[in-house]
Amino acid sequence: MALGDLQIDWLKCFVAAVDSGSLSSAASEVHRSQSAVSMQLKKLEAALGKQVLIRGPRHLQLTEDGQLLLGYARRMLALHAETQAAFRDDHLTGLIRLGVAEDYAAHYLTPVLKRFAPRHSGVDIELTCEQSTALIPRINSGELDLALVSRDDSRRGAFIFQETMVWVGAAPFELWRRDPLPIAVYDSASLARRSAVEALNKQGRRFKVVYNSSSLAGQIAAVESGIAVAVLTKCTVPTHLQILGPEHNLGPLEPMDVAVYRSKASQGSRAVDSLRGFLIKNLRNHTAPTS
Are 225 and 173 within one domain? Predict the structure, then answer.
């Protein structure tokens, strides 16, 4: 069977739908209506003679043919962007030293970098993933150019959004019934630790720190093993763990202000300007990213 030519716009809509998880979010990214995106995807499938996406009521699912197409589509779009960049007067080059808080790496930063990198192939990104309390001093010293972090001062950085904080436990152990409550915490400077302690003190609930770890993986391990309950950003909670609330005698937590910090040393870098603006634009409406 002879296949039709594949248009770049079809592939852009396809990759945007996969990365964003919905047609409505993809429509925002490619600056089209949802119905137009749906039509582009139908044209793509007609040209291939294959179904590439299963459209469910809440999410999209790749078919086996869709999985195969995705790799080719990403490479074609990257080459397309590289070709355009070669003929632009504003072609960006340089190194960006980017930091990201461990909580925000997979859920928020990765989808944005997937879109930024193909458009700016001359920019190298050196990524550091640590806790916000470790990244902010490195911004201050100029070791990092940009960082996506939990803000420690309302006067600093470019505010992006608020991330919900939640109590998390492992249902089989029912540790929330214990008195004092066993909790896992980050290091003493951690905003999450401060939030947990303040919430429990305000509630008048007794607690004891039974586990200290500076890593997200360590916090999750403590909960999974039945050692403690912990406070996590909602975006990092594994599906097999339970979010706890008032019904477990645990009060509300203050949300985290997520912000982009920039070092003074990076002022004047067009590459840093571009990535900073791209992060802010995409993440300020992080439930429906834009391009």
Answer: yes
